[in-house]
Design a protein that fits this description.
The chain is an alpha/beta fold and 277 residues long. The protein is built from eight helices and twelve strands. Bound molecules: zinc ion.
Amino acid sequence: MPIEKIVENVYSISDGSTRGNVAAYVLPNQIIFIDSGMNIPLVKEFREKLEKETGKKTTYLLITHTHGDHIFGNQVFKDCKIISSKHTEERMKESLKTNWAPDKIAEMIKNAEDPSTLEGLEIVLPTETFDDQMEITDGDVKVIFKRTGGHTEGSSYVYCPNYKSLTAGDNLFIDSFPWGGDPTANPETWLAALEEYISLDIDYYLPGHGSVSSKNKIQEFYVYLKKVVDLFRELIAEGKSEEEIILEADKIFYYPPRRPQWKELSLKKWYEIIASK
Ligand SMILES: [Zn+2]
């Protein structure tokens, strides 16, 4: 069982076995999960094991954003409050009519590397939403759930000052090129989110993909993304073509993406946003 104890009261699966990472914070009287991954039996086991070990019940599932690899395990938390930003809920509802229509889901399960990880998949929507920010307080422990946008417009992070932990969803990919090609991705709000993460008193950053990291890794990604955005602005001002600009940006080194086409598609999306200003 790939459950990792990050620090007292903070757990995660971040070895890729749930695709998107899954995290859990143990509060004085309850457990909060963050994202549900896309390996239903494994996430169920994670929840059961943590509840047994701590003698506490899971009450909340917080959803960082709309992508399937972060929400396909939601059915494991059907008895809990499932919370996301309003934007994320809207995107999920939209996806039910398009790429999550029953025939598409059946096809996806059939083609999955291990179809048993998604057997009996039901898409479970949030039970509650928030616009910008919400807080959960349990004894002297506070959990802040805040929308910033970036990877998607609804992207939100979870911050627990008591545990010096922040769970960022896909605004953080550690040691790989991020997916920045979502239709609602925005490099400017993404940079602002990274600035916010860096400004907080955090020891443990839990990304959407990759391992738990310290602040220097977040700074590394910030520096990369800032370089790209600054280059776009400079070359747009010089009147260069989109093609020339993407080619130049592609030369800036960063980790390789998990899928080969991600870098080009991300750079194109980011360019589109900067060029539209
Ligand atoms: Zn994502």
